[in-house]
């Protein structure tokens, strides 16, 4: 996995897709037809467009699902008050805003995840 930093404040979703696919972030923005904030539906559409296997839907973190899948897109409610996308891969967080994080995620609460299957 190679870290892709988001080029603007609102392109964390596009950066996550770029990391997963190995595509250039600008091409992903073009293919997704948005340089703004993204929904989980838009991320799923992009994964489908690029042929990436994934879970059918987002899974909430709960007693039944206390931890994200080992490779997944994470929904983060940040300490700064906005919703953010990041990746979990190989026991590390690949955050398009904050970089690679080893250990506990420090920038907010992870509330759900979309599993990615290789």
Would you give an account of this structure?
Helices cover 24% and strands 31% of the residues. The chain contains three helices and seven strands, in the order H-H-H-E-E-E-E-E-E-E. Strands 1, 2, 3, 4, 5, 6 and 7 form a seven-stranded antiparallel β-sheet that branches. The radius of gyration is 13 Å and the shape is globular. The mean pLDDT is 97.
Question: Any chance you could write out the topology, listing elements then pairs?
Answer:
Blueprint: H1 12-21, H2 25-32, H3 40-49, E1 53-54, E2 59-60, E3 72-78, E4 83-89, E5 92-95, E6 99-102, E7 108-117
Antiparallel strand pairs: 1-7, 2-7, 3-4, 3-7, 4-5, 5-6
Helix pairs in contact: 1-2
Rounded Rg:
13 Å
Helix coverage percent: 10-25%
Count of DSSP-assigned helices: 3
Quaternary state of the chains: single chain
In a few lines, what is going on in this structure?
The chain starts with 11 loop residues before the first helix and ends with a strand. Strands 1, 2, 3, 4, 5, 6 and 7 form a seven-stranded antiparallel sheet that branches.
Characteristics:
118 residues; 7 strands; 7-stranded antiparallel beta sheet; 3 helices; alpha+beta
């Amino acid at each position: 996995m190679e870290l892709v930093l988001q080029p603007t404040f609102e392109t964390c979703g596009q950066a996550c897709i770029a990391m997963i696919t190995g595509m250039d972030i600008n091409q992903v923005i073009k293919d997704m037809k948005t340089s703004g904030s993204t929904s989980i539906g838009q991320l799923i559409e992009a994964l489908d467009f690029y042929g990436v296997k994934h879970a059918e839907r987002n899974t909430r973190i709960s007693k039944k699902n206390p931890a994200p899948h080992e490779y997944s897109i994470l929904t983060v409610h940040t300490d700064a008050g906005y919703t953010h996308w990041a990746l979990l891969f190989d026991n590390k967080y690949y955050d398009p805003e904050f970089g690679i994080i080893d250990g506990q995620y420090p920038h907010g609460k992870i509330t759900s995840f979309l599993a990615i299957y290789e």
